[in-house]
Amino acid sequence: MKIETIFLVFAVLTWSISSTGESDAQDDIWKAFAPVDSTVDAELQDWLENAYLPNLDVSEFHLRSRFAAVDSGELDRRFKLSFDDVERFGRDASRRLIYPETLNLSDSDVSLEMFPGVAYRIAVKSHDVGRNSGMSIVRSWIMENGFTGRERVYFEIQPTGEIVGFFSANPRFYSVRSTPTDGVVVISEIDYVGYRESNPRRVD
Residue of 40, 55, 63, 120 with fewest CB within 10 Å of its CB? Predict the structure, then answer.
């Protein structure tokens, strides 16, 4: 085999391995929410319209809702892994974490797809476990350009697997709640502007 051919084969293999590695690294971030099948969606529609929406605290600002599949145990584990990686962020003189000026991404980040095509990459900045309740509580940063660290991303995971969460980041405001079906949550988008004007202290 000619030496030029050997170098060409080596170059192609090196590029192929490098490209695959980059692709894998980009895909490593864990996606918390998955679509539900049409049967589950249909089964929960009555609950959504007759129980959930009428009792939603901010029903007057409700824009849309969807169901998503989530493994609460795995979500809790991923949140803890993300928090274990928190030292990649800097701290101020009081040892408080500082939202990075240049985004410091990690494979431990978690992807929250609120609606198809609307996903956010988050990193957990604080994690607490209720002393008596065993409830896991996390607060997160949105690791994307255009966000400041002042946005509020909050989740509670009960030992029973029940999930409560909210995501407040102008112009988006989402609520996440468990449904009567195990492993399924309802994600609702709320009119941020309308809600903020009516509840300025709760949002800002």
Answer: 55
CB of 146 closer than 8 Å to CB of 161: no
Question: Among 59, 66, 19, which Cα is nearest to 41's?
Answer: 66
Q: Is the dihedral of CA 101, 104, 27, 19 positive or negative?
A: positive
* Mean pLDDT score of the chain: 86
| CB 159 within 8 Å of CB 166 | no
> Which is more confidently placed, 64 or 203?
64
Letter for the amino acid at 87? E
Give residues with Cβ within 8 angstroms of 136, minimum separation 6. 76, 79, 80, 127, 128, 129, 130, 156, 157
pTM: 0.82
Tens digit of each residue's pLDDT (9 = 90 or more) over 38-82: 999 999 999 999 999 999 988 889 999 999 999 999 999 999 999
Nearest by Cα to 137 from 146, 148, 145, 128: 128
Single-letter amino acid code for the residue at 11: A
